[in-house]
Amino acid sequence: MCLIALALDAHPRYSLVLAANRDEFHARPTAPASWWDDAPQIFGGRDLQQHGGWLAASRDGRWAAVTNVRRMELPDPAAPSRGALIANYLRAETGAQDYGASLAAGARRYAGFNLLLGDRRGVWYLSNWPEFTMQPLAAGVHAVSNASLDTPWPKLVRLKSRVSQWCADAETDTGSLFAALADPRRAADEDLPDTGIGLERERFLSAPFIRSAAYGTRSSTVLTIDAGGHAGFHEKRYGPDAAYAGETLEYLQLG
Predict the structure, then answer these.
(1) 253 φ/ψ angles, rounded to the nearest 5 degrees
(2) Rounded Cα gap, residues 157 and 144, in angstroms
(3) What is the DSSP string of 77-124?
(4) CA distance 206 to 173
(5) Which end of the chain has fewer CB atoms < 10 Å from its terminal CB, N or C?
(6) Percent of the chain whose predicted confidence (pLDDT) is above 70
């Protein structure tokens, strides 16, 4: 997943509002959001190559999401899957803070990641690049893409602003959040970050919604949770060249 905005206690109805895009190669096998066969307490999409996840929730009220960190180095083929960070957290019974702290010693074994861990007590942000960091998130609107938390890349600023306005207006129709996630507009050259990948790739990756035959936005998801644990998990899926590939809407009662 490459773009996430989340609002914590910033909406009159929802304690959490999360809007996210997962960008990936279209050839990578993926399962739609559903209850996991081998872990029936977990709901979310699933990577069928490494059997981890990118955004999922558990019946006990915990949830997690991950993005990669853009680094100009070849990944270690022996590194553990970042998707396992999601699966391992939700399979266990550990709270967000304790699970996050347990990652400190081995975090450098993973390719660069940004990790969001939530439970009924709060939300934590973790990253292993350039060094391990872990911090609780305060109430308000936050966002992360492929750099550190709230790094103001144009697509992050654009989505964060829309989520902030959605909350301020006390909206409940998620259509406008999906519209923001589906925004294909690329950033102006003068606003692009310089992450060492060259101008053309910076342009290609600068839109909230990425479209091409080989790589692009595979899914857009909006997750809402109210104070009573009533959650809505809505995932829209896309194939090569942004072809619509289906959607899933599940209402969950989280503990």
Answers:
(1) -110, 110
(2) 10
(3) TTSPPTHHHHHHHHHS---HHHHHHHTTTTGGGSSSEEEEEEETTEEE
(4) 26
(5) C
(6) 98
Q: Which residue carries 């304690």 as its tokens?
A: 15
Total count of domains within the chain: 1
- Region of residue 68 (phi > 0: left; psi between -120 and 50: alpha; otherwise: beta): beta
State the pLDDT at residue 124.
98
Show the domain range for 19: 3-253
For residue 163, give every residue at least 6 positions away whose Cβ sits within 8 Å of its Cβ, in sequence order, or none: 5, 6, 7, 17, 19, 141, 143, 177, 180
The closest of 125, 148, 51 to 91, measured between CA atoms, is 51
- Residue 73 pLDDT more than 70? no
Which has the closest alpha carbon to 215: 239, 194, 237, 184?
239
The two three-digit tokens of residue 6, written as one number: 């989340």
CA dihedral 182, 195, 69, 156 (to 10 degrees): -30
CATH of the domain at 15: 3.60.60.10
Write the pLDDT tens digit of every residue in 186-220.
999 999 999 999 999 999 999 999 999 999 999 99
Q: Could you tell me the pLDDT band of residue 136, with boundaries at 50, 70 and 90?
A: very high
Whether the CB-CB separation of 14 and 173 falls below 8 Å is answered with no
pLDDT at 90 over 70: yes
Model pLDDT for residues 11-26, shown as the tens digit of each residue: 999 999 999 999 999 9
Residue closest to 69 by CA, chosen among 175, 149, 173: 149
Nearest to 195 by CA among 246, 132, 148, 247: 148
pLDDT at 37 exceeding the cut of 80: yes
Cis peptide before 130 (omega within 30 of 0): yes
